[in-house]
Design a protein that fits this description.
This protein is mainly α. The chain contains 26 helices and 7 strands. The chain has a 5-stranded mixed sheet. α13 packs across α15. The protein starts with a helix and ends with a strand. The mean pLDDT is 83.
Length: 590
Amino acid sequence: MNLKKNTIFIYASIGLIILSLAAILLFRSFHPSDLLANYFSVHFNNPERVNLFAYSQLRKLILLGLAALLFLLGVKYLHLESVKKLTRSFEEFVLKVFSVRFLFAVILAYLFVLFYLAVSRYDLGIDEAVYPLYAKHFWDSGFAHCLYDGKLIMVDNFAMLPVYIASGFNFIFGLTEVWHFKLLISLLSLTSVYIISRISQKLYNSATAVLFIFFLAVQPGFGFVASSFFGEIVQGAFFFSAVYLWLKDDFPLHTKKILLISLLFALSIQTKFQVSQVLVLTLFIFHFIDNKKRALSILGFTLVIVVLLAVIRLIPALIDNKNNIVPYMRFWADQFGRYTSAGYLFYIDRAHFFNRFLPVIFLPFLLTGIFMWTKTPVERFLSLFTLLFFLWWIMYFKLSNYRVVFIGIIPLCFLLSAFANDYYRKALEAGKKSRRSLVYMSSAFVMALMLYGFSQNLIYAAIGNNDAVQFDLDETKSRLFTPVAWDNSQKEFYGEAAAILQSADSIYIPTVGQACFVPQFYLGENRIFDYTLLVNSLKETDNAKYVIIDRTAFPLGLSEGYKKIDSLNVHRNLILKKGGYELYSVSKKN
């Protein structure tokens, strides 16, 4: 290393350390959240978390500066010959080992461990618990619904159809434990990833297919999304199959092929409805990009099939009760009208979600680079869909739901793998003399992604608490401030609660909404009631009531649940406690 440059870097490292220490000392007196509020009028619901985040980043900068300083001082004054020899040996090892086959073998080993943990350790989260209930009723009555305080609720009667059909295997053979559903969706997700990777292999080559699996597998939350009863990964198989069948060649499209393509697009929508609006817009715009591909015909048939499937799925609901059409149509209208009108801070917060995949500042340049690189109709369609989906999610979609982003992440990984492999091959051909450096740099990049992405997903799987992972990914909570420990309390609690409670007992939850669905899954729908019915029941009868206070209903702390129960002027006697789940006997005070 040039000694003059070495000295400059030494001073730069010292400056970085001093500035970071000065910032920490400054923030001791003037908190970052206060500075942002006073000078930029930016306010936060949880200022302490913002302060902790700032401190953690500054500490990382200090550690980075110290590491750089020690290395530079060693190079300048000690020469560190042993370190240089070790580095050269490592380079030789990388050059010999680094290959697509080696990467594929590592990915397979990682996926085996990840899905073993995901299936055996994850519990049911507040959003996920309802879907097996929908699936159960789908097989019992022909339409998906759930019960809430004994009343029929029409939800998701237009989505998850392929997953509900596949779940028939579980209900036919009585495989209805949590891990059975986790295994089912994991197998469906892995099959979907295989289908998309095969499409990548057919369009490009095996290296691109392996890179697609790698880029997708390192996404934080991939294991959570792929093993949870949601369907974002599954819809990708239908979506990519339709795109491949449609745009893989220039042969004229006949009516039967258009119908098949439209059916696959419709099944993609019937798996995850959130893909519908962006897909419709993409097909419409693509007509003007390439009017020979008959995008409007495919769009028209797709909409007809989606509506037809929805009507067919409505028939069992109407047979049960003709009044079911009202909540059914209302929910459809709500889905189409679900948008946000928040201010610019909301959009900034949404954009920040993409920092979990890659620095958001690079995302526009990456998408622009990919769009300019595109050569085939498949690439043009996917790049347009990806761009529109991200814009739709940031600017329009009402819910800050992390897993929905994967609908756009999957095509991004597909394009990124083709783009990266094409760029790597061209760079290798253009600079044959620098092959050693190129292979070393690319392998170092792959290993860095591997360490980051694999560790994130394995940590999430090790936690086992589905809601803790969901809240971390949605940035409601952060595992940076909580210990990483396996939490199996949900299964243990409901296993013991089922032995304590009688089949005729009613159980109450001191809240309203989806928090009822987890106990419904474990204990039965007809015996779980919300806070409103608890209040009424206490007024009408004097006998003790069973009440569950849990982390599902009160993810920020059980104390809020205690307050709600104690406000009713009752005795609260603990019967069972497992982690964040507690069963009480509640009775009136004399």
